[in-house]
Give the backbone structure.
Amino acid sequence: TAGLTALHVACHAGRPEVVQELLDAGASVSTRDNCGRTAFHGAVAAREALLVEMLADTAREAIGEDALVPLVNCQDSAGWTPLHAAALQGDTEIALILITAGAQPGALTLLGCTPLHMCCVRPSLPTAQLLVEQGCPLDTEDASGRTPLHYAASSGNVQLFQLLYASYKPPKEAGKQGGSGSIARLLHCAAQGGKMKIMGDLLHAGLADHDDKAGLSGNPNALHIACKMAEAEVV
């Protein structure tokens, strides 16, 4: 059963009527399965805002507001909180419910990703706006040295990239891991992903890494990559 309770199963299946019966019968909201997930993780996976609210309200009444905060910030075996999952899904309503209940916008997975990193994997502008407004750090680098802005550059979502870039401009000088957090890395992310509009914006803003003759870690720089792709409008 992988440590699943009836409440886990009902939440993951998106069955509010069953969940309500289980909660009325005293089912524990805080029980974790073998992967460290609570019923909140299941409710988020089911994309059921009503279920997330039901769990939060029940926990608030049963254990109090202070005890609810660590519950909604519960991390699974990979370090994911329910908010990470909501951000990946681009579910702004659920993300707001979780944050209102005390979820931390800057929580880190084992790979160093914040919910904003996850939001940029499957770009959702409304969810990103919420996370930025709620104080999710824009300069947090994951285990490979990439900030949410680098994820946005790779995604090709121009509006999302512009939102994050307007809020946080990374240093031109090298970040950790040999420049991975720098503007040069942004160009590489955009160029290697074929995101010509984003790369063009950076180049036209005068941020080209002309002096990075070899590029990061000995690789061709972003201009070399763009030339090879024969994108004349960018070069």
